[in-house]
Amino acid sequence: MKQNQNSLSRRLLFSIGTILFVTQGTTIFWLLHEEQEIIVHNLRHASKLKVPVESLSWFNWEIVGALFFPALTAFLLSLFISWIAIKRIIAPLYKLTAQLQQRNVEQWQPFDDDGTSREVTAITSALNKLMQKLQLAFSRERQFTSDVSHELRTPIAGIRLNLELLESQSPEEIKALISRLDGMQRTIDQLLTMARLEQKMVMGLQTPVDLVSDVILPAQNECRELLQVRGQTVALSLPDTAYVIGDKTLLSLLLRNLVENSSRYADSDTGLTITVTKQTDGLHLIVRDIGKGVDETHLAALTDAFRRFDQRGGGVGLGLNIVARICRIHQANLQIRNHNQPHGLEIDIVFPADSRK
């Protein structure tokens, strides 16, 4: 980096020197052209006055020297001043380089900005934003690793014990073992989904997606099959189109998790409603079920990872956490509340509407 900065300094100095040389040379050439008339006039006048030619030649050389030496002095002085100015201008880059070289993977504090120029401030600001994104990505990676080790340690130990005792187990116990394996597979899938969500959060979104034709309608059959297990049904209330800026795959995953969560904790043989409405504050995707609802004191913590306040539905407590993360990626507002007509839980997601649609 320092070599690159020195190279930049030399290139700047060479450019300034070239400009000075061309301008000074042009000035001297022009003045010499003007002085030629004086020199010719002096030669003619000297021959008439019988002035020694040596004296006249010395005078002419004085004229040439009076042009060249001040120009050369000004040229060298300008180069020296330019070199000092360049070093002072590039000094913040040296400082920034030193800060970068002293950093390690555990140091994420912002770089100092001395405010010497807008260009250096822009570079420092861009680096600080990059450091924030990297810090966020590293912290989420650590959290993901911690979640995986925490959630898989116990089931793996249990499966190992069951395998060791497999010969003495009954078919029912073997079936339970398979069920535990399926549960662990779902947990792994959800954790991997969470890791992919973090990458999406860093990259950002910019694609228009129609919640109706791209997400909800294609998922109708899958939702109905999921709900039929507990004798539940689904009713849709949708506009013709409802565009948001987002990711189609993530929005489909969000809908599936909403339906699966509502089906798991709602009463059997009840109906689930999925509604999309256009309001002044954005697009509302509302999923409402019929059941016991949730204790008001637990509503705020429903989206915490690995938090389960109701043991009826199984799972590991990642469904609504994934929903919350997808909402953050889409800059959507997630609202969870109980409703009383009839009693149950209502999840309302408010998306910023795509202004182009």
Short description:
This protein is an alpha+beta fold.
Question: How does this model look, in words?
Answer:
It contains eight helices and seven strands. With 357 residues, the protein is α+β, with helices and mostly antiparallel strands. α1 (2-49) runs antiparallel to α2, α3 runs antiparallel to α4 (171-203) and α4 (171-203) packs parallel to α8. One of its GO terms (cellular component) is plasma membrane. Its EC number is 2.7.13.3. Residues 147-355 form the Histidine kinase domain. Keywords: Kinase, Membrane, Phosphoprotein, Transferase, Transmembrane, Transmembrane helix.
Succession of helices and strands: HHHHEHHEEHEEHEE
The total strand number stands at: 7
Number of domains: 3
CATH topology of the largest domain: Heat Shock Protein 90
CATH architecture of the largest domain: 2-Layer Sandwich
Helix proportion of residues, in percent? 55-70%
Question: What general form does the structure show?
Answer: elongated
Assembly state (oligomeric): single chain
Annotation field: number of helices: 8
Looking across the biggest beta sheet, what order are the strands in? 2-4-5-7-6
The portion of residues forming beta strands comes to: 5-15%
Radius of gyration: 39 Å
GO molecular function: phosphorelay sensor kinase activity
InterPro entries: HATPase_C_sf, HATPase_dom, His_kinase_dom, HisK_dim/P_dom, HisK_dim/P_sf, TCS_sensor_his_kinase
EC number: 2.7.13.3
Catalytic activity: ATP + protein L-histidine = ADP + protein N-phospho-L-histidine
